[in-house]
Amino acid sequence: MGPLTMHQPLPANGIDQLDPFLLLHHHGPTVFPAHNSGLPFGPHPHRGFETVTFIYQGDVQHRDSSGFSSTIQSGGIQWMTTGSGLVHSESSSAEFREKGGPVELIQLWTNLPARFKMVKPHYVGLQKEAIPVVTLAGGNGSVALTSGVWDEIAGPVQPVYDVELANVTLLPGGSFTRQIEASRTILFYLLNGSVVVNGAEISGRTLVVFDNDGDEVDVQATEDSRILLGSAEPINEPVVSYGPFVMNTEQEIRQAVSDYQSGRMGHLS
């Protein structure tokens, strides 16, 4: 993968998934030199779930076989519903390949229930300016809201399945309390920094697993910290995955492979 580093908190440490959250890859932070080859994610297929890419530094140039394309800069997001299947690539802009610079990304996979797995593929790319920011009480933190509602402000993405996602930035002494229904799965990933979460001290690059025994997430930062926070109702269906395909049965996986190999997911030149 060249200079791009990757940390995988999910799946890991005996945790296969946090239903419906399937995978979390934290790439970087790292610095690409000038005259680099860019991100290494050439054309590849997907079916049956959604991918959300958060671009913290650098840029990501998206192209897919359904005709969607965009280049999203630092602070933006890409939300792709793979649905019935497509082929896509994630590369760097010509300017970034020429000049180089810092790169930090998170890619999150969220599952879809059986009734949505074969929906028409869709893609949304949003620059930083299109993502609303909520200032936390006291002014020692902020929330960049991708989906869901925070303090009566709605995120710009309306997912196929009800998934709420936000990036929280806290200064030392910053805090927030978030009410989340106990039935929902919580995604709490600390990118960097140090926080106290419901009384437990947590340091950077840590995925926090909750017991779903309450409906409150209480956070105080002891240093500059960034958190990816999300929640969703668990799907509670069988998960059968094979590489880039996530379905409910082995037969559906075999069909996905066949459809890709026969070109029914489209082509990307």
Polypeptide structure, described:
Fe cation binds at residues 44, 46, 88, 90. It comes from Larkinella punicea. Residues 13-109 form the Pirin N-terminal domain. GO terms for molecular function: metal ion binding. With 269 residues, this protein is mostly beta strands. It folds into 2 domains: 1-130, Jelly Rolls (Sandwich); 132-233, Jelly Rolls (Sandwich), CATH 2.60.120. The chain is 7% helix and 50% strand. The protein has 2 helices and 24 strands. It has helices at 94-99, 250-261, and strands at 6-10, 21-32, 41-46, 49-57, 60-64, 69-72, 77-81, 86-91, 101-111, 122-126, 133-135, 141-147, 149-150, 153-154, 163-170, 175-179, 185-192, 194-197, 200-203, 206-208, 216-221, 225-232, 240-242, 245-247. The strands form 6 sheets. Strands 1-2-9-4-7-10 form a 6-stranded antiparallel β-sheet. Strands 11-12-15-22-17-20 form a 6-stranded antiparallel β-sheet, with no helix packed on it. A hairpin with a 2-residue loop joins strand 18 (194-197) and strand 19 (200-203). It starts with 5 loop residues before the first strand and ends in an 8-residue tail after the last helix.
Radius of gyration: 18 Å
Poorly predicted parts: none
The coarse overall form would be globular
Number of strands: 24
What CATH architecture label of the largest domain applies? Sandwich
Any idea of the CATH class of the largest domain?
Mainly Beta
Which structural class do you get from the secondary structure elements?
mainly beta
How much β-strand is present in the residues? Answer: over 45%
Total number of helices: 2
Distance between the termini: 21 Å
CATH-defined superfamily of the largest domain: Jelly Rolls
- How does the major sheet shape up? 6 strands, antiparallel
- Biggest sheet, strands in spatial order? 1-2-9-4-7-10
Number of domains: 2
H/E series, N to C?
A: EEEEEEEEHEEEEEEEEEEEEEEEEH
Question: Which percent range fits the helix content?
Answer: under 10%
What is the CATH fold-level name of the largest domain?
Answer: Jelly Rolls
**Average pLDDT taken over every residue:** 96
